[in-house]
Amino acid sequence: MKRPLLPVLFLALGLLALTGCSTFTSRSKEKPVAFNALSTADQSRLENKVINVGDTTDMVYIALGWPDEKQQSTTAAGQTTTWIYNRYWQEYQGEAYGGYRRQVVRDPKTGKSSVYLEPVSRPIYSNRKQPIMRIVFADGKVTQIEQAKS
Q1: Strand pairing class (78-106; 69-75)
Q2: 133 bridge partner residues
Q3: Which of the four pLDDT bands, split at 50, 70 and 90, describes residue 1?
């Protein structure tokens, strides 16, 4: 007996959508105590992804999500944690040639076949990464914000 595939496909797509990407709304629901304690002006600011010195780690998480990297530093003033947000892209580097592909072409008039060698190539891309924002925390509060210029 065949089972219908369509309901299973819709269920799989629904589950995939529920586990999808992190949004401002989902992050604010993850941290309801921190989010509801904020003023409406701060809530609006975080929704627009604006971070200020003095914000907490929860506030930065709600606005921007988890960082791509975290670094710990120890200085004379104490320990700091740096959250780093990166931009990722692929950069075209050229073509790599990997030999030849044989093409057999038959002439419809004469019925004779001819063999042609065609070069085979593939594009080469390198993965690139650029830090676009670094946020330094001391004692759970933002003390420094570094942003790349657009």
Answers
A1: antiparallel
A2: 85, 147
A3: very low
Q: Tokens standing for 7?
A: 């309901």
Cα–Cα distance, 126 to 132 (Å, whole number): 19
**For 31, what's the count of Cα atoms within 13 Å in the CB-facing half-sphere?**
21
Q: Residues 102, 105, 106, 108: what is their CA dihedral angle, to the nearest 10 degrees?
A: 170
Query: pLDDT tens across 83-135, in order?
Result: 999 999 999 999 998 889 999 999 999 989 999 999 999 999 999 999 999 99
CA angle at residue 69 from 82 to 128, to 5 degrees? 125
Cα–Cα dist 34/40, whole Å: 13
